[in-house]
Design a protein that fits this description.
Blueprint: E1 4-11, H1 17-26, E2 30-33, H2 40-50, E3 55-59, H3 67-79, E4 84-92, H4 95-105, H5 117-127, H6 129-134, E5 137-140, H7 146-157, E6 167-174, E7 185-188, H8 209-216, H9 219-241, E8 246-253, H10 259-273, E9 277-282
Parallel strand pairs: 1-3, 1-4, 2-3, 4-5, 6-8, 6-9, 7-8
Helix pairs in contact: 1-7, 4-5, 8-10
């Protein structure tokens, strides 16, 4: 039985724990923010008993009032669990950078309430010495953009069993039912010949071979597919480089049953062959036709 992996994210306030937590979530970790150290053993026991989670990332920091008193004791107890693999990720940044980030966000430091910001930062640094020395991994984020920091975390922690750090959703839909709100790229294929006007195809969908072949055999479809594929080959890597965790490509026809379905299937297949993690769905494929008018 593979041990449950636990990553404890801690370190200086303002050093990037929020970005780290979001990155671990995108990698498939079960994440919890601001868990009191005293609840660690109980929480991990519940996770292990559930049997449904194998990777956990927890942010534990100064917002937990008992942080300094409890964290060492609880970590020692967890280290005795043979079915638990614990790693501590410590995030740091230079004092000047932390001051700049706090002033930019207009937040107050948890240890500088009513006092100077730099005094709170230095006090926190002193109190975190023990946990810093115990950390397995250390990142100084002073000169890293959020995207660069995210890339380093993914390179360090992602393995073959985790969820893909970048995945693509290909969605077919019908314009008559409204555009999808979460689409990043929307392609309108209502200019293609419509199988609705072929009586024997009208009640079928783009998942049926007869409809799929009809759509793909049209010269207009083949030309469109070639051009759209080249566009995706150019722009999708850019989305990935910018640190996006997912991309939604929506392809729409009038009713969302024929042309968009067939093309979503073909496009998703091509992206899969290109090495991307792809999910394809057909939002309106089972809707009853509400009108006989098709454009």
């Amino acid at each position: 039985m593979k041990p449950l992996e636990l990553v404890i994210i801690t370190g200086m306030s303002g050093a990037g724990k929020t970005v780290a937590m979001q990155s671990f979530e995108d990698m498939g970790y079960y994440t919890v923010d601001n868990l009191p150290p005293s609840l660690l053993p109980t929480f991990m026991q519940l996770i292990q008993e559930s049997g449904q989670v194998n990777r956990v990332a927890l942010v534990i920091d100064l917002r937990s009032y008992d942080f300094f008193e409890e964290i060492e004791k609880e970590l020692t107890q967890l280290s005795r669990n043979a079915n638990l693999f614990v790693r501590i990720l410590f995030l740091d940044a230079q004092d000047q950078e932390l001051v700049s980030r706090y002033k930019e966000s207009r937040r107050s430091h948890p240890l500088a309430v009513g006092g100077r910001l730099i005094d709170g930062i230095q006090l926190e640094r002193e109190k975190l010495k023990a946990i810093k020395h115990r950390a397995n991994d250390y990142f100084n984020t002073s000169n890293l953009t959020p995207r660069q920091f995210r890339e380093k975390l993914i390179k360090k922690y992602k393995d073959d069993e985790s969820l893909a750090s970048f995945y693509i959703n290909v969605l077919s839909f019908g314009f008559k039912h409204g555009m999808p709100l979460d689409a990043d790229i929307v392609m309108d294929v209502r200019f293609l010949p419509n199988p609705h006007y072929v009586e024997e195809l009208r009640e079928k969908t783009g998942l049926d071979s007869e409809v799929y072949n009809y759509v793909m055999q049209q010269p207009e479809t083949e030309e469109f597919y070639k051009r759209f594929s080249r566009l995706l080959e150019y722009i999708v890597p850019g989305y990935k480089r910018e640190g996006r965790s997912n991309l939604t490509i929506a392809i729409g026809c009038t009713g969302g049953q024929h042309r968009s379905v067939a093309l979503a299937e073909r496009v998703s297949g091509k992206l899969g062959v290109d090495g991307y993690q792809v999910n394809v769905s057909h939002r309106d494929i089972n809707r009853r036709k509400e009108s006989t008018v098709r454009s």
